[in-house]
Amino acid sequence: MTVPMQQFLALTSPGIEVLLADEVKNLGAEQVIQKPEGVYFSASMELGYKICLWTRLATRVMLKLGEGEAKDKDELFKAASSVNWLEHFNSNTTFAIDFVGYSEEIRNSQFGGLTIKDAIVDQFRDQGFERPDVDKKSPQISFQARLLKDHVSIYLDFSGRGLFQRGYREHSGAAPLKENLAAALIIRSNWLDDTSKPLVDPMCGSGTILIEAVAMATKQAPGIQRASWGFADWLKHDENIWQEQLNDAIDSSESSLEKAQISSLKVFGIDIDPRVINTAQQNSRNAKLQRFIEFKCQNTNDMNNVYGSSAKGIAGTILFNPPYGERIGELPELVENFVLFGQKLKAQFINWRIAILTANIELLAMLKLSSFKRYKFKNGPLDCQLALYNVDEKQLEKDAVNPQSSFSEEDSDFANRLKKNRKGLKGWLKSNQIDCYRLYDADIPEYNVAIDVYGDYLVIQEYAAPKTIDADKAKKRLQEVIYWAPKVLEVPTDKVVLKTRAKQKGSNQYQRVDKSKQSMTINEHGALLKINLWDYLDTGLFLDHRKTRQIVAKKAKDKTLLNLFAYTGSVSLQAALHGARSITTVDMSNTYLNWAQDNFSLNKLNSHKYQFIQADCLDWLKKNTDKYDLIFIDPPTFSNSKRMEDSFDVQRDHVALLADALKSLSRGGEIFFTNNKRNFKMDFEGLEALGLQAKNMSDLTRDQDFARNKHIHNSWSVTRKG
Predict the structure, then answer these.
(1) Whole-number Cα distances in Å, 590 to 179, 585, 587, 602
(2) What range does the domain containing 527 cover?
(3) Whole-prediction pTM value?
(4) Domain containing 439 — which CATH number?
(5) pLDDT greater than 90 at residue 522
């Protein structure tokens, strides 16, 4: 008797499809076709159940119910109506429709899903039955429609969602690796070719990679612990055949586990976090595989042997999924660890296979190893690569021929420049008691960053790479910067802050980047200032205006000062400490005004002489009627904040701004005007028409740490003529 064949579609994540196709073939499927959306195959109902129980690589297995043309809504409705829905579920069973794809007529999944839902409920009603209810959250039976090139295929969600979930993982870390991806990594690492060789995960987290590896080595059916299945309420489900397949899978798994010898499997997990190790141990107990895996709480770079035995002379596999350095403060430590790890591998793990999954591809360069194979995967939404390395004699020969394959300060142009800059500033820093300064500012174009020192902390600001620079090369250079900067300056990696600064087109320059709400206090020429290295692109203190603040503060003694676009009020603060008679501080941001007031409080400056005003500076200046002896103006290069009526361009609008400021200037007063626009040109004719004259103060206001950057800012003293 011919066994009727069914059409199935197995889904998985990108990069795993080819492995899934091999898996379902090996399980007995026929007419296996791998496509980007998944793996199509033919199988009997019996084999369909078996594949659900044994697949490690699929996320869902779906059974085809019908298909048809679907150029528009009417054709889609007709195709859905061609399925005899009453054969598959009854009125008392809740259902849901998952719709994938779109066309010119069917433009979103909600519209497609509603059309199919209407076809289903109409069919029930037309045949005299109650309409079944839709339950999007927890339906008893689910279907999926897939629209591709005006053709729709309709499937029963045969296995149910989350087929990768084995049931052993009670808890997981911050970024858990899905079990089916872990299985794919194990296959690609080739460890399964000889499971008598050790397998080590040096950043094991909740233990998923190791548990999957042992389960595969001991031939465990991954689906036997699953609590619910998509076919459970399907009317054509054959419980007898299902129970036979389930019992066979259980018996086979138990038998394989009994035969497995602990001595033949050497699987080890390492993690620095004891809580994570406890979770991994519990997960391995849930999977009933704890006797095959040894877990140890240890720093990866302290890994000198494989549990009592030297790694030398053993040919094992190291497979892991390290953090990708996405969370703030994580990347500097990760870069250092990768450099140290690469050195350790070449010193102590000769003849080992190394397999690393990462979304931070450039980080792999820090190992100074040559990969022989790379595979592309998706870990959630992130594009990742699995890089494979053989740490063998060929690798060591490459190191001997190419000095760049190892890290040395002498070989790093960036490290050498940083040391040179530090030496050049040493005497100036000491004599002026300066704790916060710029040490490096894209001095070497290939290393396009600025490096600032704030006491014990280091801030690395990455500039957007020019279009002429290859993006991958720029990223690799950044990794080198992150490694060498704390090394040369002897700063712990946990005190390194990394920021990316791109040109702010059409937005305000003070962009928030994190929400750590951390702050620290620094001292600048006797003034205590609150700075925040973590939450904004700017820290609350413009280092290039250090000298400007002193010049303005001395001019402000016994005078009235207006500080416009005041930011965190550092100019106002220095003026107050130098004896200004009164100070008005204006900024549009309430956040920065509060910050300015915090700075005054830090210095115990509380008086009616100090006024803080939240307002659009341009609008406020037009309406102001008070007079000031000294006006400090440091506007943005460009702004079109929602709170401003019009955009502001400092090159275009500076004369109009100074004309308004002139109305607020006392007779004999001075406007100190500065901005950061590169190649700014003062409109002398425009000023002359206002009866003003301008003196360029740019060279005077650049302190020694900014002397090499003539374009960091430009400053002008503007006064009435005569």
Answers:
(1) 48, 12, 8, 18
(2) 520-720
(3) 0.81
(4) 3.30.750.80
(5) yes
